[in-house]
Amino acid sequence: MKRSLLWLALGLFALPHLAIGQIIVIDRPQPRPVPVRPDYTVRSVDVRADIKDQIAKVQLTQIFQNTGSSTIEAKFLLPLPADAAISELTLLVDGKELTGQLLGKDEARRIYESIVRKQRDPALLEYVGQGLFQTSVFPIPAKAERTVEIRYTQLLRKDNGLVDFLLPVGTVKAAQKPIETFRVDVRIHSTDPLKTVYSPTHAMTIERPNNRRAVCKLSLDKVQGADDLRLFYSTESGPVGINLVSFRPTNGEPGYFMLLASPEAQTGDTPSVPKTVVFVVDRSGSMSGEKIEQVREALKFFINQLKPEDTFNIVAYDSDVESFRPELQRVDESTRSAALEFAAGLYSGGSTNIDAALKTALSMLKDKQRPSYVMFLTDGLPTAGEQNEMKIVANADEANDVRARVFSFGVGYDVNSRLLDRLSRELRGQSVYVRPNESIEAHVAALYKKIGTPLLTDLSVELRLQGGGSTDAGITRVYPTPLTDLFAGEQLVLVGRYRKPGAVKVTISGMVGDERQTFEAEGVLVDESADDTRGFVEKIWASRRIGEIIDELDLKGHNQELVDELVQLSMKHGIMTPYTSFLANEEVELADRDGLARRTRESLVQLGETAGQSAFQQRAAKGRFKQVQQAPASQSFRSRGGGGGGAATPADEAEPMIETVRTIGRKTFFRKQDRWQDSTVTPDQESAAERIAQFSPEYFELAAAQGGRWSSYFTFSEAVVVNLDGKTYRIDPPPASN
After folding, report:
1. What is the band of 246 on the pLDDT scale with cuts at 50, 70, 90?
2. pTM of structure
């Protein structure tokens, strides 16, 4: 009777210096020569981490359920890189501590490869080059659950001023079913003031109770294919923390940098910068019913958030324009009370005179030293006064003498979304889109909470090489453009490219009230990255560049160079857009660049739509690309049309899923008929590729080369074609057993 091995990966870290992950190996008799995975599910994963001055105490609790009809035996494996500073490691199963042993990377590699050979599943190769903590076997009876808890203490590394913390989330390699619930709670306590607290992988909820504490939370349901969670934080004195992270794949390619600028967390006695806000509210006939009710509540929220040092006004418009007061008002008990009464008296009716409303609001702003914001809300098209969107934007720009920022809220599908994007682009703001039946109040409250307390305005950023010679680092394509203001509780995430590496001085300048202040820090633009640890910087840059390209095509029309660049970026990074999702179709040839560009041009015709659901969704998607804060996660797609020319759609619909796109590290692989193809492989390279049999000695040696740096690219069960260090390989699986 043969025995087979099944492993379940709950945490897959590709970062060699801090890797932590768990594997459950299921060992059970099988009557057939072909291994059959037992039925199991991961009910929940709960992580609690307390970090104090770079010491992390982590408790990870997981509930497994054997959904099969017989007992299975489980062995717990914990990959540990040789240089990971981990101590006090304890493993408990249903409250009982299990013994185990630590193995070095050579013995661990033997075990990893042994499991891969027996199971014919290459996913475990992700851990080649790491050490191992191994436990004894424990049973899980049929239909029973086991609670596995791991506790460990870890010294976190600090690099370029950033403390780097990682947690296991990924389950894509072996989980048959999604994890039902995944909860993470990370609490940071620092002796020195905290500045940056940022996750490049997940949109965590981050609360800052004071300037030495942070609470970071993540809550996910039905987790499958998620990426590992990563969290940075820095401790610095001074009002603004500045950290520079750079990544350069080779010294022959452009480098990518991320600049994190974080103001000091505000305390109750921290003075805020006085600001001016004008609320421009649509009260036309289309706003009747629930919309106008929500607008009243949103305005009340705005008014109650104003501070005594602020000035404000309200402009309500339909066919005509009415102001709360003829001029800006200072905030006091009397004006606040009167403004609340004005908001309560708003009723809908009439047409939509957007042009006159914006000119009225902007003409009220006179003080160039004070940060000024216009919160503009509409649910429809301009139907009164000037109706040409180009002229409306030009008129608003002409009236904007103080360089106020305009934040636009489009409510419902009837809004002219291209007009709102033009306004936001030209008047240095942002567009927010609210779907029908969504809460207007929630959206406007979220944005106003973010911008309610400006700390540093009219920003400029400069990176200059230090030492002799030129100080020009060749910085290009920096996003966001234009720069946003720096608000309390927020941080600037600036990305760009560089041509010349070296030590740099970072200078951030901005207005604090009516005084310009300058903050400096030092950093390094690396010559060549040793590994892909910082590869997320390139991914975030690529997402923002894609958003900028779509914005250019939307507002300025066709440009073939931009279309070609959109295709190239989408294909290289696996970032699917509404105009390039066909790349995920198995029948689409990646080498047919002319055909790909033609199909993209045809898809971009959709940008001609200014109103309606499609237009609304396109502008909302474009905005998400331009503002992305986290590296895009791996995406699964479904191919439609019976394998022909149908488009690919993200895997959140109720159709059977065929995974056709997989992102691993810096590389993107597309499923093309009988193989997975690295997006950088050309037809000539593929035809000349060195062929290696899966599970052969050459296969394992290649996976272990360079300390296992490439091992994650060998985790496909199917054939894969990949470029590695200037050479192309095709890995073919063994013939199927009869």
Report:
1. very high
2. 0.86
